[in-house]
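note to self: dont lose this again. the chain is below, predicted strucutre after it. 404 aa total, dont forget to put it in the shared folder this time
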Amino acid sequence: AERRAADLFALLDVVVDPKAIVGDLGAGQKQLTEIAKAISQDAKVLVLDEPSTALAVSDVERLFVFLQKLKAKGVAIIYVSHRMDEIARIADRATILRDGRHVITAPLSELPIDTMIEHIVGRRSKGLSDVERGVAVKGDVLLELDNVSGQHKPENVSLTLHRGEVLGLAGLLGSGRSSLARVMAGIDPVAKGEIRIKGRAVSIRKPADAIAAGVALVPEARATQGIIPDHSVASNMILAVIDRLSAGGLVDTKAANDLTDAQIERLRVKTASRDHAVSTLSGGNQQKVVIGKWLATNPDILILDEPTAGIDIGSKSEIIRLVRELAAAGKGIIMISSELSELLTACDRILVMSEGRVHQDLPREALEDPSVPADDLAHRLQAAEQRLQIEIQKTLAVQEVSHG
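---
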């Protein structure tokens, strides 16, 4: 069985240890294991639902090469994705659904990306390039990391986050971005280094310490770490502050409902009622519930790990607008995303990570291409994305040289 599993991973040209416990793997390697399991059955029809979520760019490329081989062998592939660029590359035809209804099925030659987005959101949109970034007003320093290391990753990370600033973390799968988030949120221990919040050294040994210090983490694995699917929107929304809403072991229902209703309105959560199970909501609205749960703690520092994974372009734009609004209201935000266009739309500064270390600290403006007209937002975003991709690949080259 181990040899067969190793052969399947070799087919995909990826490295996953067949003897490893799946629960110990990172999100990307779990996804690769799921894909390997699917292709092990020699199916005639292969359905892939958001297969690239959490995968590094290089792993997505390998997956696409493999899918082309399957297609050449006569396998029919249904590829479900919210990533328009992937659909444009991999598909022959596309079917678009909105609110559970069929909108259109057409060859890709008749569906340029802007037309696809229009059908998905129900109105003309340029996707993320439509999001108004606004001008960041940086305030005082909220968070400082001084040579912070975890037990494995991160390694000697130093960074500064200001009030009103959105700081992005970019890098490939395994670069240490989520590990850094977990250390700052008290989920994984700090092995060495110092964390300072508002100029004072803090000891964050467990999540409760981070929450008390004004740090909140919206985790990457929404379904297993962010929500309790069978519980109501209200029950999920008050989880992080249930102690504040309780007396004598009983929750103050009115206070809980008032808080939930305020967050539903603030975040524009689409739900039939606060009493509906979170599992009945779309992925984008589930994510808003997770964000609302942590905003209820009124944190100064909000860490978002892949906040738009597996949600549609309309909801992505809403969440990125929310990130910008929260920063404008004086929060300090750290955002991790594998989608570079999202980082460039949301962030004021981007740190490029590799092997647990920070290799680059890039202001958003440094990635602009002055030759692209200022009013051509879509192409400006595209050009900045290409420049950021080059910076990430440079760290990969440095990493390969350091390994000899």
